[in-house]
From TrEMBL, chain B:
Tree of life domain: Bacteria
Membrane topology: Multi-pass membrane protein
InterPro entries membership: BP-dep_ABC_trans_perm, MetI-like, MetI-like_sf
TM region positions: 12-35, 69-91, 103-126, 138-161, 182-210, 239-260
Segments forming domain ABC transmembrane type-1: 73-260
GO biological process: transmembrane transport
PANTHER family referenced in this protein's UniProt entry, alphabetically: INNER MEMBRANE ABC TRANSPORTER PERMEASE PROTEIN YCJP, MALTOSE TRANSPORT SYSTEM PERMEASE-RELATED
Family (UniProt): Belongs to the binding-protein-dependent transport system permease family.
Entry's localization field: Cell membrane
Protein name: Carbohydrate ABC transporter permease
Database matches in PROSITE patterns: ABC_TM1
Range of residues in the leader sequence: none
Main location: membrane
Length: 289, 275
C-alpha cells in the first residue's frame, strides 16, 4: 500500500498515545527496575550505586533458593495436573459434541472468578477443623488433612486449587485444537482398524501437541508469577513453605522496603519466565505440523 | 472403529457420567460459597456441614452495616470503568495501526506487562507515584490498571481488524480517505463486536486484579478485591459475611463472562487460540 508522508504522520498520530503510555508505564518502569537492582535503595528512596551487591546477596540467600524451589515445584506440579486433567476434560467434551450453552458457562465460571475469591472460598472449604473437605474425607474413611496449614502440603494444596480454577480453561483451548483436527486422519485410522487407545496416543495426541504447547505457554506465564491466591490464603506460610519468588520479592519490597534487593529478585524471576517462554516457543516450532 | 455398536453406546454413557462428575467438581465450590453466604453464623460453621438450612440475608446486611462495602464497590467501579475506557481509547487506534502497517513491535512490548511479575512494575511505580504524591489516588490505580487493560484491548482487537478485507481500505484511500478517517468512519464500525468483547474482558481483568490496589490504594480508594484481604482477617470469626463478600465480588465478572463466552477463549489467549 502506498504510504505518503501525511499518511505516515496520521498513522503515527493514531498510535502515539498508546506508544507514549507503553513507554511511560511499561518500558520505562521495566528498565528502572533493572537499574534499581544495581542500587542500594533506602526506605525513603535515596539511591546509591551498589554494583552487583544485590545479586551477590541473592545467591547467598537461602530464602531465595527456597523461593526458587517452591516456584518451580508449584509450577511443575500445577502445569502437569492442569494439562492432564484439561486434556481429559477436552476429550470428554469433544465426544459429547452438542454442549448446551449453560453447561459451557458452568465450565467457564471457575477461571472467571477473581483468584482472590477462589482463595476465600477454598479457605473455608479446606479449614482443618470445620471445612467441608475434611468432612468428605473422614466420611469416606480417610484421614483428615491440614491442607494449607501444613508446611508439607501447602504447595500441593495450592496446586490443587489452581488446577480446579484453570483446568476448564486448558480444556477449552485443547477442545479448540481437537475441533480443528482434520477428520480425514480419523477416517484413515478407522479404515486401518486402529483401536481407540492407539488412535488417541498415536494420532490425536501427537497432532494436538502444538495446541498443548500453546496452553503450556499461557499457563506458564501465570503459574511462574503465582501471587494472588497465595497472598490471600497463606501470605507465604506456614513457615515460608509457600513463599514463591514473587511473594518473597513483594515482601522484600513492600514489607521491608528493600527496593534494590526486591528489584534483583523480580528481574531474576522475569528472566526465568522469559527463559521458559522462549524454550516453549522452540518446542512449539519443533512440534508444528 | 473396530468396536461393536453396543460397546460404542457404553462408552457414550461412560462419557456422559464422567462429564457430570467433572461438572460437579467444577461447580460445587462456587455453589458452596453462595450457599454459605445465606447461612446463619451458627449454621455456616456447623460440623458436619449442612446442605439444607433456612436461608437468611443477615450476612449481606452485616456487610452493609459493618464495613464500607458500598464505598469499596464504588471504588472498584470507578477504577475498573475508567481503566477499561482508557484501555479502549489507547488500544483501539494502536490495534488499527498495527493491523494496517504490520509493524508489531509496539504490541509486543505491551506483552512485557503480561510476562513480568506485577511486583516488578510495582516497585518503580511506587517510587514514582510517591515522588508526585499520587499514592492512594484514583489516578494511580486507573493508570496502573490500564497496563492490564490496554494489552488485552490491542490483542483482542487485532484479529478483528485483520479480518476486514484490505480492499475496503484501499477503495477508501482511492476515494481520498485519510488513515484517520478510514479508522473512525470505516474500520471502527466494522469491529464493533470486537470492541464489546475487548471492553468486557478488560473490565473483568481490571476488576479481578489484586496486587496494584493492594499497595497503591488507601482506605478511601481501596477496591473490593484489595479489601478482601481485610474481610479475611475479620472473616475468621464470621464465615458467612466473608462468603457474602466473596459472592458479591465474584458476581460482575461471572455475569460478564457468560455474556461473552463465545469469544472468551480466543480473547483470553490473546488470539493465540481460535475458540
Amino acid at each position: 500500500m502506498d504510504t505518503s508522508n501525511s499518511q505516515k504522520a496520521q498513522l503515527a498520530a493514531l498510535s502515539a498515545p498508546s506508544v507514549i503510555f507503553t513507554v511511560v508505564m511499561i518500558a520505562f518502569p521495566f528498565c528502572y527496575t533493572i537499574w534499581i537492582s544495581f542500587q542500594a535503595v533506602s526506605a525513603t528512596g535515596m539511591m546509591r550505586f551498589d554494583g552487583v551487591a544485590n545479586y551477590v546477596r541473592m545467591v547467598k540467600d537461602g530464602q531465595f533458593w527456597n523461593g526458587l524451589w517452591i516456584t518451580i515445584y508449584l509450577y511443575v506440579l500445577s502445569l502437569t495436573l492442569q494439562l492432564v486433567c484439561g486434556t481429559a476434560l477436552a476429550l470428554l467434551l469433544f465426544r459429547a459434541r452438542r454442549l448446551p450453552g449453560f453447561i459451557r458457562s458452568l465450565f467457564i465460571s471457575p477461571f472467571m472468578l477473581p483468584p482472590v475469591v477462589a482463595g476465600m472460598m477454598w479457605l473455608i472449604i479446606l479449614d482443618p477443623s470445620l471445612g467441608a473437605a475434611n468432612y468428605i474425607l473422614t466420611s469416606l474413611g480417610l484421614p483428615p488433612s491440614n491442607w494449607l496449614a501444613s508446611p508439607a502440603l501447602v504447595v500441593p494444596t495450592l496446586a490443587l486449587i489452581d488446577t480446579w480454577q484453570w483446568t476448564p480453561y486448558v480444556a477449552l483451548i485443547v477442545l479448540g485444537g481437537l475441533q480443528s483436527l482434520p477428520p480425514s486422519v480419523y477416517e484413515a485410522a478407522e479404515i486401518d482398524g486402529a483401536s481407540r487407545t492407539r488412535t488417541l496416543f498415536r494420532i490425536t495426541l501427537p497432532l494436538l501437541l502444538p495446541t498443548l504447547v500453546t496452553a503450556m505457554v499461557l499457563r506458564s506465564v501465570d503459574l511462574l508469577r503465582f501471587f494472588d491466591l497465595i497472598y490471600i490464603t497463606t501470605q507465604g506460610g506456614p513457615a515460608n513453605a509457600s513463599t514463591t519468588l514473587n511473594i518473597y520479592g513483594f515482601r522484600m519490597g513492600f514489607e521491608f522496603f528493600q527496593f534494590g534487593y526486591a528489584g534483583a529478585l523480580m528481574i531474576t524471576l522475569s528472566a526465568l519466565v522469559l527463559g521458559v517462554v522462549l524454550a516453549l516457543n522452540r518446542l512449539r516450532n519443533a512440534v508444528a505440523w | 472403529m473396530t468396536s461393536t455398536p453396543s460397546a460404542d453406546r457404553w462408552i457414550g454413557y461412560l462419557n456422559t457420567v464422567l462429564l457430570m462428575v467433572a461438572g460437579i467438581i467444577v461447580v460445587a465450590p462456587t455453589l458452596w460459597m453462595v450457599l454459605s453466604s445465606f447461612k446463619f453464623s451458627h449454621e455456616v460453621t456447623a460440623y458436619p456441614p449442612t446442605l439444607f438450612f433456612t436461608p437468611t440475608l443477615t450476612n449481606y446486611v452485616s456487610l452493609w452495616e459493618r464495613t464500607p462495602f458500598i464505598q469499596y464497590g464504588i471504588n472498584s467501579a470507578v477504577v475498573t470503568s475508567a481503566s477499561t475506557a482508557l484501555g479502549i481509547l489507547l488500544g483501539t487506534p494502536a490495534a488499527f495501526v498495527v493491523s494496517w502497517t504490520r509493524i508489531t513491535w509496539p504490541a509486543i512490548v505491551t506483552l512485557l506487562a503480561r510476562m513480568a511479575p506485577g511486583t516488578l512494575f510495582l516497585l518503580p511505580w511506587y517510587l514514582m507515584f510517591r515522588q508526585i504524591d499520587m499514592i492512594g489516588s484514583y489516578w494511580a490505580l486507573i493508570l496502573t490498571h490500564a497496563v492490564i487493560t490496554m494489552p488485552i484491548v490491542i490483542w483482542v482487537l487485532l484479529p478483528f481488524f485483520d479480518n476486514i478485507p484490505r480492499s475496503i481500505f484501499e477503495a477508501a484511500q482511492v476515494d481520498g480517505c485519510s488513515p484517520i478517517r478510514v479508522f473512525y468512519r470505516i474500520a471502527l464500525p466494522l469491529v464493533s463486536a470486537g470492541l464489546s468483547v475487548s471492553s468486557i474482558l478488560a473490565f473483568v481483568f481490571s476488576w479481578n486484579y489484586f496486587l496494584f490496589a493492594l499497595v497503591l490504594s488507601n482506605s478511601d480508594t481501596k477496591t473490593l478485591i484489595a479489601a478482601s484481604f481485610n474481610f479475611i482477617g475479620e472473616g475468621s470469626t464470621n464465615w458467612g459475611a466473608l462468603m457474602a463478600a466473596a459472592t458479591l465480588i465474584a458476581l460482575p465478572p461471572l455475569v460478564l463472562a457468560i455474556i461473552v463466552q463465545r469469544w472468551l477463549v480466543s480473547g483470553l489467549t490473546l488470539g493465540a487460540v481460535k475458540g
